[in-house]
Design a protein that fits this description.
alpha+beta, seven-stranded mixed beta sheet, 24% helix, 26% strand, globular, binds dioxothiomolybdenum(VI) ion
Length: 743
């Protein structure tokens, strides 16, 4: 029996999804179901002065129309980010329909509940609203002068600024200086499945919510705090989630609104967001700009790095995607300063999106590095190698594991970087160029213990459970493999069950922590169950293993055997049948190491890209991408490969396509549809080569996993932008790189 970990097990949820059998949150069959539709504010700032719902209430099929006048008040509003770990401490942030104030366009102002979604939708159009509007801020340029440095960002988890050494002095003394500002259009996640919640009150204090979420426990705790109920009153189920990319990480307003509506009409309520509502209901990547100043010697050695980010947040949260963490440690730099600046605007609070923070932060750094290489006349890869840091430059601690140099090496071979002509090439009207970038992403440890339960039945099959949801990452598949290896069972005899808050608590899967956090708990639970069964066998006078040292017993294919005499032993099933044991169960708890445990913990990689730019039309075609990453233990080569490739293609989208455009006159997104918001499709996808470098990491968690969810995105856009510069001689300071910027 070969180990399942490191293999290529097909997605255990694949069959149900391909056949259309998977049930998403808006598809669950519920008796007596009625439908809720949100009505959204059409102005960005001000207040409601009048709202007339009489006609809507009289419309066919309508059960109720709820507004700030008659919706129940919420008990408390938990801080967005800590709620992901079940910490429902009240703080900043906002819940709609509590008063007449309007903070952003798209803010929910009414809920219509009717027997069909079409009738609810129609009745919503009959509501008459009058507003007193006030001037709004929806673009950075409207309020740069009001920027402030927040005390803390990211739900209070990170400081608003950090520094080491004396960056001003070091920059003043630097022989070479690169100073560049990069602008990023807002981006929206656009998962295929829009968010939806189906709320069913089984009793006055028993609520089930079927929710498309990255964390069923996070939804449970957040809704509990909002409704003023204990967590025991709320069960959250996520059977299947159709993609997320960060949009279903925070617990937004709709699950609680569905629950409140269901309680008020006394019927189960389904609230499914429309595609357009997804642009104003689930956060987005904020409009931002980042200024990078690098001071270096003429040999390319970096002496100082200054990194400032300016971004647009909501009226009620100090939110910035943390873009400064990876750039701060990517290279040796004795002097460093990183500062977040925020402008308050009329928007929902922005949120995580695809390699949150570092997708933009590393773009800025890696483009500036390319400029530095050009300035001092050395190869961009050579510049990275000269500044490679053997230790975490911030703490001075060793890396828990790196592999970065090996990634550069392998990417270089796969791409043919050394044969690259430093001058651009021309093929007819196509200008050909190549570029590279480093990829770094922090390894974030969950703040709370992660739990999983393993249960073995007396027929030798096992169920392993944790409250994680499957939103397309392949986590259920990887967990099946982890459990199978730890129990010594073939994968066919293991079933992983997730997607419910009734299961052992794990943090919402964000920031590439999902598989490693849950995997560590699953590994511990399954290992402890195996050890427990071995202990029982060696203590049982009727077992062939009686009296053996448990340390010498291994399990293969469900049989506990002596390692050195594999013919001596018995199957789990035989021992359980003999001892009249129907099943055996263990709850495993993994306590993550503290974030500062004496190591720098990051994931590393290298990206290279070749582009062709049409000299007349400015069209950019990415021809080849190579990404090599060192994500620690790879649980499933197939799903990891596809996560990493998906990340690289999202990087391509970030570079060339993705932008949500704000119309500042109305304060509304101008392209809130999948027809107008461009994402990369197959026709955009070039020849993509993905490879991994094996690094062994004993610090991060028991299996040495660092995660593959984000690292594939990081650096991809910078490699493309650097390739565009190589091809055209024009630096790109704004994403996406649309063709008018190249004409
Ligand atoms: Mo991920 S973008 O941190 O949910």
């Amino acid at each position: 029996m070969s180990p399942a970990i490191g293999g290529t097990l097909n997605r255990v949820d694949g069959r149900a999804k391909v056949r259309g059998d998977a049930r998403y949150s808006a598809e669950v069959a519920v008796t007596g179901l009625v439908h809720a539709v949100l009505v959204n504010a059409t102005v960005a700032s001000g207040r409601i002065t009048a709202i007339d719902t009489a006609e809507a209430e009289r419309a066919d099929g309508v059960l109720a129309v709820l507004t700030h006048r008659n919706l129940s008040r919420v008990a408390s509003v938990p801080k967005l980010l800590p709620s992901l770990a079940g910490l429902a401490a009240p703080g900043q942030t906002f819940f709609p329909m509590q008063d007449e104030a309007i903070h952003y366009s798209g803010q929910p102002i009414a809920i219509v509940i009717a027997d069909t979604v079409e009738r609810a939708d129609h009745a919503g159009t009959l509501i008459r609203v009058e507003y007193a509007t006030t001037p709004s801020t929806t673009l950075l340029d409207q309020a740069r002068d009001q920027a402030y440095v927040p005390e803390r960002i990211f739900g209070g988890l990170l400081p608003g600024q950090a520094s080491r050494g004396d960056v001003a002095k070091a920059l003043a003394e630097a022989q070479v200086c690169v100073d560049a500002t990069y602008r990023f259009a807002p981006n929206h996640h656009n998962p295929i499945e829009p968010s939806a919640s189906t709320a069913v009150w089984e009793d006055v204090d028993r609520l089930t919510i079927y929710d498309s979420t990255q964390g069923p426990n996070a939804t449970q705790f957040t809704v509990a705090a909002l409704l003023g109920l204990p967590p025991i009153s709320i069960r959250v189920v996520s059977h299947a989630v159709g993609g997320s990319f960060g949009s279903k990480a925070m617990i937004w307003h709709h699950p609680a609104l569905a629950a409140l509506a269901a309680r008020q009409v006394g019927r189960p309520v389904r609230l499914a967001l429309t595609r357009e509502q997804m642009f104003t209901s689930c956060g987005h990547r904020e409009e931002q700009e980042q200024r990078i100043t690098i001071g270096a010697g003429t040999d390319g050695r970096i002496t100082a790095l200054r990194h400032h980010k300016l971004s647009l947040t909501s009226r009620f949260d100090d939110w910035a995607e943390p873009s400064l963490q990876s750039p701060a440690v990517a290279y040796t730099s004795p002097h460093y300063e990183g500062i977040y600046h925020l402008v308050r605007g009329n928007t929902i609070t922005p949120t995580f999106m695809r390699a949150p923070g570092e997708a933009t932060g590393m773009f800025a750094l890696e483009c500036a590095m390319d400029e530095l290489a050009e300035r001092i006349g050395i190869d961009p890869l050579e510049l990275r190698l000269r500044n490679y840091s053997e230790t975490d430059p911030e703490s001075g601690h060793p890396w828990s594991s790196s592999g970065l140099k090996e990634c550069y090496q392998r990417a270089s071979e796969l791409f043919g970087w050394r044969d690259r002509d430093s001058r651009p090439r021309r093929e007819g009207q196509w200008l050909i160029g190549s570029g590279m970038a480093s990829a770094l992403y922090p390894v974030t440890q969950p703040v709370n213990p992660q739990r999983a339960r393993a249960r073995l039945y007396n027929d030798g099959t096992a169920v392993v459970e944790a409250g994680v949801s499957e939103f397309g990452t392949g986590v259920f598949t990887a967990m099946t493999q982890v459990a199978a290896d730890a129990l010594g069972l073939p994968v066919e005899r293991v079933r992983f069950v997730g997607g419910s808050s009734d299961l052992p608590n794990v943090t919402a899967a964000v920031g590439s922590t999902g598989t490693s956090a849950v995997g560590s708990a699953v590994h511990l639970a399954a290992t402890q169950l195996r050890d427990e069964l071995i202990r029982r066998a060696v203590a049982d006078a009727h077992s062939p293993l009686h009296g053996a040292d448990p340390g010498t017993v291994v399990v293969r294919d469900g049989r506990m055997v002596l390692r050195d005499h594999p013919d001596v032993g018995e199957a789990y099933a035989d021992m359980m049948a003999r001892t009249l044991t129907p099943d055996a169960e263990v709850l495993g708890t993994w306590t993550p190491p503290p974030q500062d445990a004496g190591y720098g913990v990051h994931t590393f990689g290298a990206q290279m890209a070749e582009v062709a730019v049409d000299a007349d039309l400015g069209v950019v075609r990415v021809r080849r991408m190579v990404g090599v990453f060192a994500p620690g233990r790879v649980l499933n080569r197939k799903t990891a490969h596809s996560q990493l490739m998906g990340g690289m293609l999202w990087g391509l989208g970030q570079a060339l396509l993705e932008a949500t455009r704000m119309d500042p006159r109305s304060g509304r997104w101008a392209n809130a549809s999948l027809g107008d918001y461009l994402v990369a499709v197959n026709a955009d996808a070039p020849d993509v080569v993905v490879d991994t470098i094996e690094v062994h990491d004993e610090v991060v968690n028991p299996l040495g996993m660092k995660g593959v969810g984000e690292i594939g995105v990081v650096g991809a856009a910078a490699a493309i932008a650097n390739a565009v510069h190589h091809a055209t001689g024009r630096r790109q300071y704004e994403l996406p790189i649309t063709l008018e910027k190249l004409l």
